Amino acid sequence: MGYVDDGGGPAHAHGAAVSVAELTGPQTGEPDVAVELEARKGKVHLASGEVVDGYTLDGSSPGPLIEATQGDLVQVTLVNVDVPDGITLHWHGVDVPNAEDGVAGVTQDAVGPGRSFGYRFVVPDAGTYWYHSHQISHEQVRDGLFGPLVVRPAGAPDADQDVVAPVHTYSGRRTLGGATGITAVEAPAGAPVRVRLIDTDNGPLRAWVSGAPFRVVAVDGTDLDGPTDVTDKGVLVTAGGRMDLVVTAPARVDVGGGTALVVGPRGTRIAAEPQPDADVDLLTYGTPAPLPFDASHPDRRFDYDIGRSWWVVDGTPGFWWTINGHLFPDVPMFHVAEGDVVVMTIRNTSGQVHPMHLHGHHAYVLSRDGEPASGSPWLVDSLNVADGESYVVAFVADNPGIWVDHCHNLDHAADGLITHLAYAGVTEPFQVGGPADNSPE
Ligand code: C2O
Ligand code: CU
After folding, report:
1. Residue 319: pLDDT above 90?
2. Alpha-carbon gap, residue 239 to 169, rounded angstroms
3. Does position 69 have pLDDT exceeding 80, yes or no?
4. Which atom number of ligand 1 is nearest to the Cα of residue 93?
5. Distance 381 CA to ligand 1 centre (A)
6. Relative to the alpha carbon of 387, which ligand is closest?
7. pLDDT cut 90: percent of the chain above it
8. Average pLDDT over all residues of the chain
9. pLDDT of residue 159 exceeding 90
């Protein structure tokens, strides 16, 4: 699809090639964590009692928490019991080898009803992640095919108590950990509690804390340097992104719609304070530190300009997303070689917010609207790019494959706000459509 954008670097040479399908995780060895997940279509029983139509993994949505320790070999067997359109699982935020990435039509075929598929990968970094289907994802994720994934640091266990808090809206009901209303978690007064917020919806999640100051200790699985106490601001979690807060019990974390987490001694009640007008600005929050690579002389520079224009597509006139002025599928294919330092400018003039997600990599935010980042190094896999904003990010191309780079408002992705990052020497054996009916977005 699309046209080649070399970003000012050398064009890909022809020659020795490896297929996406060969870029797997370890094929042998005892897994440290082995999980089987059964995917079904049917009723979803929310933890708070409501019942909605959708999909489940092992009988519930969110699916079970997968927990591992940094460096573990994780093995997940996905069994599609009766999801008619087929499914896959993508490990959002985990930089897995390409063939384990779970994108239908790009890294594998969709897994049809009655079939199964095995994923095996080492989890390289501790942090908060999630998994979700990447087949017809705008429908399957919305309707429940996702779950949380937490990687604990190796060595000393976390001292803090920990709450995994995926936030999802089922048919208009905002939930936290699958429950509407108040979720109470017991913690002694004065105890620090790490709340791992995961935004599994299509839009930005605004959360706020009542009762005590808090700190933002991690974003997209990476700890921040020098987080300071916040009292009068909320937080914005990018769609698809994660944010770990440390609150001191008793405290209340609101995620909107009256849905909240209350941590404290049994029976604690805390009224929600009004939602603050402003959110913590990660561009300036925390303490700066040098980046692990030099982004001042990149090997490639790419623009990812998001606009919107009037086109007629398949006979249907409408406003469609554009990338660098082009309409899907005639969008740029960003070409890189392994080891390249890449700088990308993401500019949004489309009138709506876009949570941009590059698979297989994490990028440092260098600047926003020309203002250099001056807080903690800010490493993202999901970046909230509001209308009118422009971000410069940098990453090292260190994970060969063909990777999608798309908006995580999955309806936007389904409408063509998606492109690819392609490494030299990697060939693509899968296709969208085809006998497996692959439809990644
Ligand atoms: Cu969370 Cu391409 O996905
Ligand atoms: Cu979007």
Report:
1. no
2. 12
3. yes
4. 1
5. 10
6. 2
7. 94
8. 96
9. no
Q: For the domain 161-264, what is the CATH code? A: 2.60.40.420
Q: Which ligand 1 atom is at minimum distance from the Cα of 103?
A: 2
Residue 313's pLDDT is 77
For residue 24, pLDDT over 80 is answered with: yes
56: pLDDT strictly greater than 90: yes
- The encoded tokens of residue 433 equal 């459509």
Ligand 1 atom with least separation from CA of 404: 2
Architecture of the domain delimited by 290-427: Sandwich (2.60)
The single residue listed with the structure tokens 């000012």 is: 8
Helix (H, G, I), strand (E, B) or coil at 21: helix
Please tell me the pTM assigned to this model.
0.97
Q: Which amino acid is at 95?
A: D
pLDDT at res. 315: 84
The confidence score (pLDDT) of residue 314 equals 80
| Strand intervals (E) in 171-299 | 173-176, 182-186, 192-199, 205-210, 214-219, 222-223, 235-237, 242-248, 251-254, 260-264
Two structure tokens written together for 173: 């009901």
Which candidate, 386, 356, 104, 87, places its Cα nearest to that of 240?
A: 356
Q: Which residues line ligand 1 at a C-beta cut-off of 6 Å?
A: 90, 92, 132, 134, 240, 357, 359, 404, 406, 408
Q: How far is the CA of 253 from the centre of ligand 1 (A)?
A: 26
Query: What does the H/E/C string look like for 328-386?
Result: CCCCEEEEECCCCEEEEEEEECCCCCEEEEECCCCEEEEEECCEECCCCCCEECEEEEC
Residues 6+ apart with CB under 8 A from 324: 5, 303, 304, 305, 331, 332
Interatomic CA distance for residues 225 and 374, integer angstroms: 12
| pLDDT one-digit tens code per residue, 195-234 | 999 999 999 999 999 999 999 999 999 999 999 999 999 9
Q: What is the CA radius of gyration of the chain?
A: 21
| CA nearest ligand 1 atom 3, residue | 92
Quick check: 160 pLDDT over 80?
A: no
Which tokens belong to 257?
């719609």
Mean pLDDT across 405-415: 97
The ligand 1 atom at the shortest distance from the C-alpha of residue 441 is 2
Start-end of CATH 2.60.40.420 domains in the chain: 31-152, 161-264, 290-427
Asked if 41 and 368 count as a contact pair (C-beta separation under 8 A), the reply is no
* Nearest one of 231, 254, 257, 282 to 384, comparing CA atoms: 282
Mean pLDDT, residues 341-362 taken together: 98
Return d(Cα 323, Cα 412) in angstroms, integer.
Answer: 12
**Per-residue pLDDT, 93:** 98
CA-closest candidate to residue 67, choices 98, 32, 25:
32
- Could you tell me the CATH superfamily of domain 31-152? Cupredoxins -  blue copper proteins (2.60.40.420)
